[in-house]
Every structure is written in C-alpha cells, then in structure tokens.
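Supplementary Note 2. Why include the ligand at all?

Several targets in our set were suspected to adopt different conformations when bound, so apo predictions alone were not considered sufficient. For every target with a known small-molecule partner we therefore ran a joint prediction. The input for adenosine-5'-monophosphate-propyl ester is given below.
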Amino acid sequence: MTSPTIESVLHEERLFNPPAAFSQQAHIKSLEEYEQLYAHAKADPQKFWADLATKELHWFEKWHTVLEWQPPFAKWFLGGKLNISYNCLDRHLSTWRKNKAALIWEGEPGDSRTLTYAQLHREVCQFANVLKQLGVQKGDVVGIYMPMIPEAAIAMLACARIGAAHTVVFGGFSAEALRDRLNDGQAKLVVTADGGWRKDAIVPLKEQVDKALADGAVPTVQNVLVVQRTQQPIAMAAGRDHWWHDCRTSVAADCPAEPMDSEDLLFILYTSGSTGKPKGVVHTTGGYNLYTHMTTKWVFDVQDTDVYWCTADVGWITGHSYIVYGPLSNGATVLMYEGAPRASKPGCFWEVIEKYGVTIFYTAPTAIRAFIKMGDHLPKAHDLSSLRLLGTVGEPINPEAWMWYYRVIGGERCPIVDTWWQTETGGIMITPLPGAIATKPGSATRPFPGILADVVDLEGNPVQTNEGGYLVIKHPWPSMLRTVYGDPDRFRRSYWEHIPPVNGRYFYFTGDGARRDEDGYYWVMGRVDDVISVSGHRLGTMEIESALVSHPAVAEAAVVGRPDELKGEEVVAFVTLEETASPSEALVKELKQHVVNEIGAIARPGEIHFSDALPKTRSGKIMRRLLRSLAAGQEVSGDTSTLEDRSVLDKLREDT
Ligand code: PRX
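The joint prediction is reproduced in token form.
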C-alpha cells in the first residue's frame, strides 16, 4: 500500500455559494440547517436515524433496537419489518403519485416507454409471481444480467418484493466473470435478456449466460428467465429457459410484498478488492432503504416536479441506490437510458435532457472528460435550461472538468454535487447538500449528517489540516456493508484491520487517501491500495494478474494503473513469459483478448510489456510502486534499496 503524500495536494480557491433561488425551495436550505442536523446526528446518531426511519419509511412492524454494534458487525432497526419494494411502489399508490411517471425509459434505437407508479407496481407484481412460479423462494439468490431496460429495475424490485436477494452482474462482464459471481452467490435463477443495445451494436447477453452455465458450471441455477429486447434469434434450453412474456400470461397481477426483517439480505454486489477474487458486498433491507432514501432526498434535493437522470448502469452500486431504490422510495420520476454516447450520436445525452426536460443529471468524471473532448458544440446545440442540479461520482473530478461541467452543462446556474461513496457504503457519504453547502471544484465537501468521517494515519491518529492521510469512517451508518458474502474474515481483514481500533473505537477503512482543508472540506485523492479505477470502475490488479497468469504463455504478471486523460487510469501489465513462449505483437493481442474473455472489456490492458523478470523486494514482493512510475513514464524515485536485483529495473527502464 502506498501512503498518500502531501505532494498530491491541489490548491483551489474558487468557491461557489448555493444560488439563493435554489436554497429557498431546497429540502435543506442553509449551512446553519446542515450544521444543526450534523450536530444532532453526531450527538445522538440512533435518535437521528430512528426519527427519520419513522417519518420517511413504511414499516409493517416497528423495530425494538435501533443499532446493535458488535464491531465490526452492525445491525440496524432490529425486529423491524418492512419491504423496500413496498416503500418504492405500494405506498405511492394511495397518493396522487399513483399515475405519476415512475420510470421514463429511452432505448438506444429511439424507442421509449413510460411506466407510472401504478403500472410499475403491476409489472413488478407479475414479475415476482413468475419468479415464485419458477421456484424462487424467500432467502434465495437471483442473478440479474440485463441491459438498461425497465425490466432490469423490475426484476430487482420483484426479488425484493418476495424476499429473494439479487446479485446484479454488469452486462459488460464476460461469461467467466458472470459464472464466478453466480457460483459465489449460489444463484438459483438468472434473469437476462436476448440482448441489449450498446453503441449501435447488440450485446449478446443470453449467449453469455449460456456460456456461463455450460456443462453444469453453475449447479445451483435451475432456471433462466429471458426478457425479449432485441429480437435476434437465441437458443432456448428446454426446461431451463423461459420467456418472460410467456410466463407472465399465467400469473396474477397482484403479489403482496413480503414483510422482511430489517436485517434480511437485500442484495449482494461484487466489487474488486486489492487481493483475490471480487468481494460479494452484502447489503440488508432496512438501513439501506433509509439511507438511500435520505441521501436521494437531501443530496439530489428531489422534488415532485423533477425529472431525475442518473447515467450509471444498474450493474453498479450507483444504479442500485440512485436509479432504483433511492429515487423510487422518494416517489421521483426516474429517467433511464439504455445507451451511451456513440459515434453515430455523440450528442445523445443532451438530446435526452432536452426531450424529457431533465432537471437533475448525475454522471461520472470519465463521462465528463469524454464530453469535453467531443466539443462544446454538442451540448450547445440543445436546450439544457431545464437542468437545475448536476452531480458526479466515481472518482476525483479534476477542477477544470468541474468548471466545464458547471459552465457548459449547468449554464453557471446549477450547483454540482460531487458525491464520494463506495459499493460498500451503500449510499453517498461525503457530498455537498446543494442548497446549503458552498462548493469548491474538486472537493466532495462535507460529510452527510450522521457520517463521522476523518483523515488519519495508519495508527488511527488524525492528521493535520491539509495533510494527506487515510479516509476513515468512525461510526456505523445504516447502509454500511454488513459483511463480505460467505467470508466474514475477509470483511474484517479488508475494512477493519488496516488501522487498529483506538480506545475501543473502530475505523472503517475506505482504501482512499484524502485530506481535509481549513474549512473542513474533504479532498479525496484516490485509492491507496492495489485497485485501479478505469472509467470510474474499480478493478483489482490481482484479478487482472490472475487472468493473465491463467494464459499458458504467462509465467508471472504485475498490473498497475497509469494516469489516462479520458479513463482516469489505464491498465498497464508487465509480463514474464514461460520458457516455451516468446514475445510478439500477436501475443500482446492475444493476451489483451484473454483478459477481455476472463473479466470483460473494461479490464483490457492498454499496454503489455514483456520482461525477463519483475522488480521484487528481497522478500519476493513485486514492487508495484516502481512499475507505476515506469508505466507513467516518470523517473523512478523513492527508496529502491529493498530491490533484490537492480538490473531488472534498469532493463525494464530501457524497454518501457
Ligand atoms: O476511490 C473512490 C472512488 O470510487 C471508489 C468506490 O468505487 P465503487 O465501489 O465502484 O463505487 C463507485 C460509485 C459510488 C472510492 O473508494 N470515488 C467514488 N466517488 C468519488 C470517488 N473519488 C473521489 N471523488 C468522488 N466523488
């Protein structure tokens, strides 16, 4: 692990106050109001969350204990019974929202659908009944491998409705990655589609599912439920594969929501760690529902007149928390878009904003950098005046990209919420509340009420103002991950043991470096562990290395990230070959494709360097720090005295 260093401190003095007109109608209207909320929550977190849980959610039965904290294991709202699908759907049906648009969907080829809350409820009930008919029961795990179509959200809500946990696997992951995740989660059924549209091509999702399940590779999966989207021919295995449009004709239109225990498993979502296979991050029902509800309400300031668009894919946590659960729990109108900006339609995002009058737009720095590159003429050709709030998530945003977003997309009128959080945190942790907190380009600003963040050294001592350190969270929060699925030891090791408890107080280790400035604003500097962020997606170096080593020509591999203007980081691999293999351009191509097959296109190395040996410490550890400098074309600096064989480094330097 590298230490965050003071050198990465960036100096930024621009400050943008919340526009008065925005603050006046916002849920949280002023800095004083935020500070009061923050102080209340800090003084008595349990009361703070319990009051909100009472006021904001529907419970079938009230909890008896707000929080049970046996570090590092937390339970929230013990004894409480609720259903997140009920909170996202049913409770709106007795209000005027019944016929309000819940989902407005735009497909890549230009087709579109709108589902009101009443219609979405009906779809979810039918989907839930089909799942039941196919043998899915409370407590089972369902894999979801879908394009960005309404049925992705419908499937998630249907699982939640009957008490089955979902594990959504991003449609860009390979059959191998899907297989590993389905096996780890012991999924009983897979929901997929014949295909999905992405950049003017069809992603053959069902074909990938067939590959993942071939030869009984996932013995727990009994059925595959297939949604028709693209209508290209696909194979349907008799007895195993079922069309959704056929199954739905034989089920009832209503399916009562199952009262779930607050701590019942809601979903597993896999994320990369610094070592080994992806971790199954476990989220449970009550705390997650409350926290995503509150953050959606206060961070995005969602009002009934808003058209809210988050451009993430449902395969990532952002899609779970801020396309599906948080916004629907608030009764918002959610826009969902199937595609991505592409050569044939580089301005499609701006077209969608204009077409539907989007008011809140939430995207990632990697997308913003791509927009900048494509040119101002694209957004300028559209009327973006409906926008009132912008958001960003996924990686640190460079201040100049922030300024471009503010000026060109937000017309200097929209606040920007730079939201820091993780798959593990379930919801947004550090962020401006747009009517209350002045923003500084590049800073996620201040913690959400109830979140006790800090920047500390490896002993847990707070560092000085403006000094770099490790970002930690010092008190449990409702949507924190409960464990790593099937591996509580890994949960402990990954999040709670890097920094030892101080006076009995446990620190959740985020894996990010940060500093806090004189105004208490947080500046997140990026990962301090061996995780690479490509286009805002976390990839473990270890996973890519394992993929490379699984190729017969590869003896050893080391993977590092190299700063990249568009993607944030690019994957660079250093590889030593088996005696029987020799370096060639063809092999480079083959290895890149091998990584794509094993993990997915997002993990494709940008560069592969062959080397006779890798730089190692005397104890045999690969010195990734040196490789990172080499990959970035920088002078290798710092301590190299632990290097076992200096000539390895000299040779690599010549070749790179
Ligand atoms: O390094 C931080 C970065 O993304 C990591 C979490 O990745 P993931 O679990 O895939 O979730 C992404 C979406 C929530 C963090 O550890 N990150 C996320 N948001 C920000 C960020 N870094 C800086 N600023 C952000 N706003």
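Residues 117-133 form the longest helix (17 residues). The radius of gyration is 24 Å. Comparable summaries for the other entries are listed in the accompanying table.
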